[in-house]
């Protein structure tokens, strides 16, 4: 098998960190500063016979009222194109937070026919792990996700499980 997986989410949720973790190298710039990556970054992961091309896709979070600014329009269109031909989408959010930008990303995924996997990142920073289960249920109700996987991209927790979910959908 061989296929494409897009990694989407608002700035700062950990898209680049996840890319680097999956690919085992620093291919994608990570920063505390939002929007460090304006271009798509791709990397190939080979696992036995299976190959997956991961695409770090910035610019999905731009809300409709801001879409007219030239740079925003450019990023938004690039993000839209990237989603047309993927086999699988990994939608990342930051633990138990939900913002307007997360909502904007989710709305951009409405017409995506590829399976969407929800990755709940930064669970290492959750004070109360008991929050997670009810949260997964509430956010899981926002869309019919192919799978929901809590991860820590920074520490690598559960990232292999996430990769398994992606690989099984190529
Ligand atoms: P992006 O804008 O979505 O590409 O986000 P980045 O990958 O650049 O990460 C934004 C910030 O969140 C950086 O400071 C990362 O080190 C941090 N970060 C990413 N993943 C995790 C995680 O699993 N746990 C913690 N504690 N921090 C993370
Ligand atoms: Mg990034």
UniProtKB/TrEMBL annotation:
It comes from the Bacteria. Residues 35-39 are annotated as: G2. GTP binds at residues 9-16, 56-60, 121-124. Residues 1-170 form the Era-type G domain. It is found in: Cytoplasm; Cell membrane. The keyword Hydrolase does not apply. Keywords: Cell membrane, Cytoplasm, GTP-binding, Membrane, Nucleotide-binding, Ribosome biogenesis, RNA-binding, rRNA-binding. It is a peripheral membrane protein. Residues 56-59 are annotated as: G3. Residues 9-16 are annotated as: G1. Residues 121-124 are annotated as: G4. Residues 151-153 are annotated as: G5. Monomer. An essential GTPase that binds both GDP and GTP, with rapid nucleotide exchange. Plays a role in 16S rRNA processing and 30S ribosomal subunit biogenesis and possibly also in cell cycle regulation and energy metabolism. Belongs to the TRAFAC class TrmE-Era-EngA-EngB-Septin-like GTPase superfamily. Era GTPase family. This is GTPase Era. It comes from Halomonas piscis.
């Amino acid at each position: 098998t061989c296929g494409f997986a897009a990694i989407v989410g608002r700035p700062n949720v950990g898209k680049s960190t996840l890319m680097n973790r999956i690919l085992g190298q620093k291919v994608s710039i990570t920063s505390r500063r939002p929007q460090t990556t304006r271009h798509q970054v791709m990397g190939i992961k080979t696992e036995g016979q299976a190959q997956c091309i991961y695409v770090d896709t910035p610019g999905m979070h731009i809300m409709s009222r801001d879409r007219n600014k030239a740079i925003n329009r450019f990023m938004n269109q690039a993000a839209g194109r990237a989603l047309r031909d993927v086999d699988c989408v990994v939608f990342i959010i930051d633990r138990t937070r939900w913002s307007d930008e997360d909502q904007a990303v989710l709305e951009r995924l409405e017409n995506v026919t590829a399976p969407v996997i929800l990755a709940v990142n930064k669970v290492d920073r959750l004070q109360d792990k008991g929050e997670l289960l009810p949260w997964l249920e509430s956010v899981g109700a926002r869309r019919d996700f192919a799978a929901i996987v809590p991860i820590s991209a920074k520490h690598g927790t559960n990232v292999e499980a996430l990769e398994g979910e992606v690989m099984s959908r190529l």
